[in-house]
Specification:
By secondary structure, the chain is of the alpha+beta class. The protein contains 4 helices and 10 strands. It starts with 9 loop residues before the first helix and ends with a strand.
Length: about 210
C-alpha cells in the first residue's frame, strides 16, 4: 500500500478561514458587551451616589465631608467637616465618602478612601475644578492633589456614558469631560469628542 499525502482542498481552507473569522468576530463582540456592561454599571454607581448625597444633605443640612458635627450626629469614628461648603483636598474627599458610608447611604468597595468604579479607576469629589463651578463627582484613574487627574476612559467610552444620561457633548450639561494631566492628545475636538484619540485620556465629571 502506498501512503497518499493529501493536502487541504480550497473548500476546506475557505471553511477554516471562515471559522477563524467568526471566532475573532464573536470574541471582539464579547469584549464590547463586557465593556458596555461595565459602563452601564458605572452609570448606576453615579446615580446611586447622587441619591445618597441628596439624602445626606436633606437630613443633615450640609454636604458629606463638610458637616461640622458629623462625629456627634453620625459616628464617633468620623472627622468633622469645617463647614466651608467646599470639597477640595484629598482629606476633604476621604472625609466626604466616609460620612456617606457611616451614614449608611452607600455600600461600595473602597480603595485608599475612594470608591472604586466598575469601569476601572475611582471616584473623587471636587468643588475646585477650573472653569467648572459647583460640586462634581470625578471619575478618574487617580489623583495626588484632587486638582490634577489621570485619565480613565477613551473618548468613545466617555461619550457612551455622556449620551446615555446627558447631552453627549463634552463641555455641556451635567456630564462633562476634561483632558487628563498626563494625556498625550486632546480628548475634545471643537465642541465634540475627539474619537481619533483611542487612549484612556478622559476624566469624566458628573455635576451634583
Amino acid at each position: 500500500m502506498k501512503n497518499v499525502n493529501r493536502g487541504f482542498s480550497l473548500i476546506e481552507v475557505a471553511i477554516a478561514v471562515l471559522v477563524i473569522s467568526l471566532i475573532a468576530t464573536f470574541s471582539l463582540k464579547g469584549k464590547d458587551l463586557i465593556q458596555t456592561a461595565k459602563l452601564r454599571a458605572t452609570i448606576d454607581q453615579v446615580e446611586s451616589f447622587r441619591v445618597a448625597i441628596n439624602s445626606f444633605s436633606d437630613k443633615y443640612g450640609a454636604f458629606p465631608g463638610d458637616l461640622v458635627n458629623a462625629k456627634e450626629l453620625i459616628d464617633l469614628s468620623l472627622d468633622n467637616g469645617n463647614g466651608s461648603g467646599q470639597i477640595e483636598s484629598i482629606d476633604d474627599v476621604k472625609r466626604f465618602w466616609s460620612h456617606l458610608l457611616k451614614a449608611g447611604l452607600i455600600t461600595t468597595e473602597m480603595r485608599n478612601g475612594f470608591p472604586t468604579a466598575k469601569c476601572g479607576g475611582c471616584f473623587s469629589i471636587s468643588s475646585n475644578i477650573p472653569g467648572k463651578p459647583g460640586m462634581w463627582i470625578v471619575l478618574t484613574k487617580g489623583t495626588q492633589d484632587n486638582k490634577h487627574f489621570s485619565g480613565v476612559l477613551s473618548a468613545a467610552n466617555a461619550h457612551y456614558i455622556d449620551k446615555s444620561i446627558d447631552t453627549g457633548l463634552p463641555e455641556e450639561g451635567d456630564v462633562q469631560v476634561m483632558k487628563a494631566q498626563d494625556a498625550s492628545e486632546d480628548v475634545i475636538s471643537g465642541s465634540s469628542y475627539n474619537f481619533h484619540n483611542k487612549n484612556d485620556d478622559c476624566v469624566i465629571l458628573f455635576k451634583l
